[in-house]
Amino acid sequence: MSFAHRMQTSRFEYKYIIKDERALEIRDFVRGHLVLDPYADPSHHMGYPVNSLYLDSKGLQLCNDTVVGKKNRFKLRIRYYDDNPTNPVFFEIKRRVNDQILKQRAVVKRQAVDKILAGHWPTREDMFKPNDSAGYMKLQNFCRLKNSIAAIGTVYVSYFREAWVPSDHDNARLTFDRNIKGCPHKDRFDASDDRDWSNVKIDGVVLEMKFNDKFPNWMRELAHNFNLQRTSLPKYVECSSVIPSMRPRVMMPDDELRI
Fold first, then answer.
1. Number of structural domains found in the chain
2. Which of 57, 71, 199, 204 could form a cystine bridge with 149, CB 3.0-4.6 A?
3. What pLDDT sits at residue 194?
4. Is residue 162 part of a domain?
5. What share of the chain is helix, strand, coil (3-state, %, to 5)?
6. Which among 56, 117, 118, 121 has a CA at the least distance from the CA of 89?
7. What is the rounded distance in angstroms from the CA atom of residue 242 to the CA atom of residue 239?
8. CB atoms < 10 A from the CB of 105, how many?
9. Domain that holds residue 118
10. Residue 171 lies in a domain
């Protein structure tokens, strides 16, 4: 399974929390504009699992930058979609510049993860395709940012995603995320699901509308017709806040985490 095409260099992301029954209605609406993601499994709730290991400093600098609403910030994560040791993982830098999302993704051999997490500088042989020069530069950028804050593996975030995409371009997509959960990273990278997870309590489904440049008219119509209210729900922060060992280090506002 290859998810390399999912890397967008720049886009906007609008998030909403909706009820399960509303998600079904919105699904029916978007069928007129999008198709089900080709990697989805219609026999398994029309989606696929998304898993990420987030890196952060010991003081959770990146987590708390999000909590306090720092305008220009970044996250470091290692994303994977299954526990198959022969499949790659994706080293990702996710930057937020004001309201815009900028991403870089490098496709890396799974067996290289622990070496890189331990502080070793990556080589081209760590790339899933050693001749991927552009990807290698992105991996080096990842490691420079990692080293700049002494980041280490911190929290695993997992959820189930139902995604809808255009049939002829990649300028917009819509996703429903369910069953968000997190657990702390231990000594080694572990892609299995056999861990002590803490569930994030969300009253409904996380809907995300993602687009390049201009907010599509059909998305505007969708938001109006269903009276959608934008919110912020950073999954890494939410998961960190429900893990008992992590919670004391998260600078939680008095009222709520969703800033």
1. 1
2. 57
3. 85
4. no
5. 25, 35, 40
6. 117
7. 5
8. 21
9. 4-17+51-157+181-200+219-249
10. no
